[in-house]
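$ fold --in a.seq
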Amino acid sequence: MAIQCDVCGKKPGKGNKYSYRGKKKYLGGVGQKVTGKSIRFHEPNLQVLQCQVGGSVQKLRVCVKCIRGGNIQRPVKRKPFQIQAGMI
């Protein structure tokens, strides 16, 4: 299974991590120099949730951006509380 959101398809992004040495110019140094570069990955924040898909409930990997944006529908665990008419 890929590290990917099942709703929007967000995947890991690729970037570089730089390591520096030296003191910055605005602090009185001669400037920072790059001494190394390595590849890194920006992973999406995925959560495994139970979601309502059609008429069934499935476990999906969903990114937090989709959860906060309301792009998924959570299943109803139980019916809401109701007072019966004859009980009052």
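$ fold --in b.seq
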Amino acid sequence: MTPSTPSAGQRIRFGILTLSDRSARGEREDSSGPALARLVSAENWSVVKEAILPDDESAIRQTLSEWADGGEMDVILTTGGTGFAPRDMTPEATRAVIEREAPGLAEAMRAASLKITPHAMLSRIVAGIRKRTLIINLPGSPKGAVENLQVILPILPHAVQLLRDDPASESSH
């Protein structure tokens, strides 16, 4: 394997973007972003950037584009803004910046969540690719964000390997 080949010990680089009006204003501590960072670190991967933004579609689009286009991250996780509330615009912002959707990831997370809570039917999470970066929306609650990420953790090394156009990716099929 080459050094760029994601494997069990390979350092996949993550960005974590929390989307919450209250957390952005300092009225509520962000607990979802840190919970995701702990899970990423437990996999021996790295979090290279974290931020908290209000539920503003334009700001979300701009940040997702800048982060993905910067080439510093393999995966961007968003947490929050995926429900039915009027200001929940994360899926719309994500769809506006991705070049290709990855519907299987969102479907798998919703299916697994449905076994835990019927509220999973209200999830509007989206996953997709911009350039060589995978963008994944997660729920805003720490429990929901972690549970959803745990569903797709096993495939992330191979997904990143494919995005990096690593020739060794074919051996993983």
